[in-house]
Amino acid sequence: MKFMFAAAMPLLAVACAPLPPLDTSAGLVGVADATSPVSTLQAGPAVTYRNRAVQEPGNWTDLNNAQGPGVE
Predict the structure, then answer these.
(1) Is residue 2 part of a domain?
(2) Is 40 inside any structural domain?
C-alpha cells in the first residue's frame, strides 16, 4: 500500500498543478483565422478514371507490366 501511495503522489501533484498560459502570438492566431478561404485549389477528382470493360482473366505478368509506373 505504501508503494502505491508513493507512486501516486507525483502523478496527483502534476495533475493538480495549474497549466501555463497559452501562447497567443500573431503567428499562431493568424493560422487559426476562420475568415480566410480554406483552400485555393480547384475542386476535382484526385485521380484519373480509366474505364475498363469486364473480360476474362489474362496473363498477370502482362497486366502488371502495363499498369506499372511510367507506363501509360
Answers:
(1) no
(2) yes
Residue 31's domain spans which residues? 8-66
Count the residues in the chain. 72
Distance set, CA 12 to CA 3, 21, 31, 40 (Å): 14, 21, 35, 47
What predicted TM-score, i.e. pTM, was given to this entire model? 0.26
Summarize pLDDT for 7-52 with one digit per residue, the tens. Answer: 888 888 888 888 888 777 766 666 656 666 666 667 776 777 788 8
- Is the alpha carbon torsion for 3, 7, 9, 10 positive or negative? positive
* Grid coordinates given for 24: 497567443
Nearest-angstrom CA–CA distance, 49 and 17: 56
24 contacts: CB under 8 Å, gap ≥ 6: none
